[in-house]
Structures are given as C-alpha cells and as structure tokens.
Amino acid sequence: MLRGLVKLTWLEIKIFLREPMGAVGTIVIPVAVFVGLGRVAGRTLSPGTLSDPSTSFGASSVWVRIILPVFAALLIALSAVVSLVTIISIYREGGILKRLRATPLRPATILTAHVVVKLLFTAATLALLVLAGKRYYPSGVNVSVWSATVALLISTWSVLSLGFIIASLVPTARFAQPIAAAIFYPMVALSGLFVPLASLPPGLRAVARLLPLTYAVSLLKGIWEGEPWFAHAGDVAALAVVFAVCVAISSKVFRWE
Amino acid sequence: MTAIRPPVVQVSGCRKTYGSLVALDEVSFDVVDGEIFGLIGPNGAGKTTTMECVEGLRRPDRGTIAVLGMDPFRDVYALQQRIGVQLQQAQLQKRITVWEAVDFWASLYRRPASDGRRLLDQLGLAEKRNAWFMTLSGGQKQRLFIALALINDPDVVFLDELTTGLDPQARRAIWDLVRDIRSRGKTVFLTTHLMEEAERLCDRVAIMEHGRIIDIDTPDRLVARHCPERTIVVTTEDAGAEQRFRELPQAQSVTRHGARLTIEGRGDDLVAAVIDCVSANRIRVSDFRTLMPNLEDVFLRLTGHSIRD
Q1: Facing A7 at nearest CB: one of B95, B107, B132
Q2: Residues B201-218 pLDDT 10s
Q3: d(CA B77, CA B27)
C-alpha cells in the first residue's frame, strides 16, 4: 500500500499546486507578511536597543523576536488544519472519498497522504520563513532551521490530528471552515502566547492545559529562544498523546459520505 | 441457458433499515456469469442500496451476500481486486487529469492491470488524457469512470445509473461499451430507472420497488407474463374489414377512427390471426402496426403507477 500512498501524495501535491490560490495562500502570503513586518521592524529598531530589555524598545523586541515568529508559525499550522478540514469535506461532499473507498485504498492511506501534503507545505513555508528572518530580522535571532522546522512539524502534526476529528464529522465544506476557525482561534487566545498562562483565571488556565496549542506554543517559543529539546520533552509528550487520542477517535467516527 | 452458468453474485434475504425506513426488504437474487443483469425501478426503490451492499460499501442488517464466493465485508480488500465499480454521483478531484486518474487507479491493484492507454483509446478519451476532470463533459466523465472500473480487468463490473443525465447520443455510445464488456466475458450488474436502457441492454432484469424485488426474468418473458395484451392498428378503406376482425376469437375489441381500426386482444396468436384474416379476405391495408407492451407497461401493471412518478 506504500506505493498507493506515495502516488496519492504526489498526485495531491500536483493538484494542490494547480489550485489558483494553492501555493500563493500557503507559502507566498505568510512569508511576504513576515518579511514585510521584519523590514518595518528592522528599520525602526536599531540592533543595540534590541538586546537591551530595560528599554521600551527592548520590550517590543521580545515581541518581534519571539512572539511574532511563533505567531506566524501557529498561523501556518492552523492554515494547514483549516485547509485539511476543508479539503476532506470537499472530497466527502463531492463523492470523491466514496469513489476512493471503492478501491483497495484504505482510509488511513487517504488521510495520511493529505497530512503529508500539508506537512510538506508547512515545512517549506517555515524554512523560507526562517531563512527570510535571518536576512531581515535584527541579529539576536539565532535559530536552527532544523530545530524550528521539527518543532513546527510536531506541533502541526498534533494540531492536525484535532483537525481529523472535525474533518471526520463535518458534513459539508461550507461548515468546515467556520467550525475549524471557531475551535482554533479561541485556542490561540488561550495558548499562552499573548497572555501568560500564569495570569489567566484558574478556570481558563485549566482549560488551556487541556488544549494542544498550549503545548505547541511552549515548544515553539522555547525552541525559537534557543532552549534545548530536553527542556521541552513534556510538551512533545503532551502533543504525542493528543495525536494518539485524536487519531483513535477520528478513525472511529470517520464518515465517507 | 443461463441456469447452467454459475452465479457470481448471490444475495439472499437481505434487509436494511434506516430508522423506521425499510430500505431493503427480503431482497434475494442471483447474477450469473457472463450476463448483463439490471436492477430497475424508480429513484428511491433501493437499487443503489442493494448494489452498495453487494460491493461491500454498506452492510445489510440481515441476510447473506456472496460475490465470486467471497463475503463483501470480511473479504472486502480481496474482493475489490476482482471487481470494478462505478458509483452514482461520484466525482474525482477537480484538477486531476484523465491520465493521472487512470495511472493512479492502475497502481492500486495487484492484478496486471489492463493497458491504460488502450482503455482510453477504446473509450474515446485518448485526446483528453491531459485534460482536468472538471473540464470534461458528462459523457466523458462517465467514460472515465468506466475506464476506472475496468482498469483492474475485473470479473464483475458494477454500474450504478450509468447514463443518468446524458443526452441520447452519449447514452447509446455507453450502451455499446457495456455490451463490449459482456463480450469480453465479464459479468455486468447495473441499475437504471430508464426502462428503455434495461430493455436494450439487459439479459435479465429484477424489478424493484419500495425495497423489494417484485419479479425477475428476461425483459421478453416479463412482458409476456405480465402484459400479454397486443394491440394491432390497421388502416384500410375496406368497409367489411371491421366486421371480419370482430369475428376473430382472439380479438377482444375493435374500434374505428376513420380508416384506422384498432384491434385489441391477448397473446401472440392475435397477430397471426389478424394477418391470416387480412390475407384470406384480401383486405387492402395501407398500414399495419403491432404495438407491443414494454417494460414500462410491466412496471405500471405491477406497481399501479408509472416509473416516472
């Protein structure tokens, strides 16, 4: 079945690139926005003030150095999720899933192919982002492209698995995007990226601890700040658990039509 | 004839309900090797449900199904290697090309696949091999789905409402393709709500309504069994003809509209009797037509309503 998976993945990449907004929406726009912001920020902030946290420029430098890249990374992950949910529901609505089901292809192969496509585009976008960041962002950003990419892939993979459940259940493409957005944007708000977890009310904090995005943000932030991987083993474990649980649920509830 | 060939599809006592709706009710039938078998009936009769149960896409609540000796649920992946399926209302990715679809499908099967290029040639799609699916016409899409159903050189081909939405010309072309499949020794199991299609294409048909099979036989025998009436329309200036026809024992009624006489009776004898009468009495006729009932009439007789209602 591996041959089917490789062929389907390659096919879906080609089909995705033929979409009028396919590559532009996933790769070009995030990188362009990031680079644009970086140039603006780079002009406003001189390198000296960036490394000094005592100045007000120093505070905004944390924003530029850490929060903005992590936020950009999250948006890439979320766009992968929304795009996965949308494409699966379009395939279901159009009877494409049904047609694929009447072949020796197994459902896991179909989902895996789409996940691999999304991850490949996510990795490509992120790699470009980091490279662009090195060029345009002030010094002090010293992230390994590999570490950042792997961290984002782990995060995306886990967040995508939440997308599986939505994708398995949503009846039509028209509902898919708003439902995905309604679930994921509040998760971003609670993820600890903008408001530290410690300053959340206890109830919300408990909710935040159950959400995979919280661990994704912790991992991405840490790796982006140059922390070692072992410091984030807990995050990686939490993301793995989320992935396993979500895959188990979605394989139970997956609907072909 | 067909009875000595082994059945490739055996369905017995299948029942399927969705809530309080009984979709299939004690459905039983066999499809024998090398025939074109048609399941006919109006939309919502349970044709697609029956076919999807046989294909292993749905599981009946009760009853047994065997396809090529295999259980469509337990042996679903083994079975899919040996059957070809065309589904109602299926689509492919909008921007997949004809060739990519054929090539991908071929890669999914273990059996040495049919030559994709030759298949596209035969189905008249060779020029469209690089066209996106979304740009194909309805007939071209259906031909592509036939190609995909044949790609693994299957023993049984399932075709669900194959020509729905096609214009008459495209429909006829597809009929020829289906006869072609049979002539290559394959078994074809199709559904249709078009009586003309069933009549022209099928060796045997099962008439289905409200989830039940009402009768199964060749189209000719179904007509003979359920609609034995014959109507003959004769146009003649001969003033004595009407009385001669009335005297025939096989004729039940004779009505006149100007020079046109309509003779109604039962059985094949009627036609012979009228011809003999015309010839024995030297009646000069300018027109002679026999109106045969068809499957449409059989359906009306069996269910009390037209299939189009």
Answers
A1: B107
A2: 999 999 999 999 999 999
A3: 24
Residue B202: how many CB atoms within 10 A of its CB? 22
pTM: 0.82
Measure the CA–CA gap between B59 and B49, rounded to whole angstroms.
9
Distance between CA atoms of residues B235 and B207, nearest Å: 36
Beta-carbon neighbour count of residue A40 at 10 Å? 12
Q: Smallest Cβ distance to A11: which of B80, B87, B96?
A: B96
Point out the residue among B87, B94, B103 whose CB comes nearest to the CB of A99: B87
- Cα distance between the two ends of chain A: 23
Write the CB contacts of B217 (distance below 8 Å, at least 6 apart in sequence).
Answer: B204, B205, B225
Reported as a single tens digit per residue, the pLDDT across A208-218 is 888 888 898 88
In this structure, what token pair is assigned to residue B19? Answer: 């809530």
Note the pLDDT tens digit of each residue in B163-187.
887 888 888 888 998 999 999 899 9
Q: Does A104 touch chain B (CB under 8 A)?
A: yes
Q: Is residue B309 part of a domain?
A: no
Residue B274 CA to residue B291 CA, distance in Å, equals 13
Cα separation values, A163 from A76, A166, A181, B111, B115, Å: 14, 5, 11, 36, 39
Could you say which of B224, B247, B263 is where a domain stops? Answer: B224
Is B299 inside a domain boundary? no
Kindly state whether residue B305 falls inside one of the protein's structural domains: no
Residue A198: domain span: 2-253
ipTM above 0.90, yes or no: no
- Secondary element (H or E) of residue B63: strand B62-67
Can you give the residue range of the structural domain that contains B189? 2-224
Contacts of A103 in chain B (CB under 8 A): 80, 105, 108
Would you call B250 helix, strand, or coil by DSSP?
coil
Same-domain pairing of B161 and B264: no
For chain B, say whether A14 makes contact (Cβ under 8 Å). yes
**Gap from B76 CA to chain A (nearest CA, Å):** 8
**Is residue B298 one of the residues assigned to a domain?**
no
Cα distance from B173 to chain A (closest Cα, Å)? Answer: 23
Total count of domains within chain B: 2
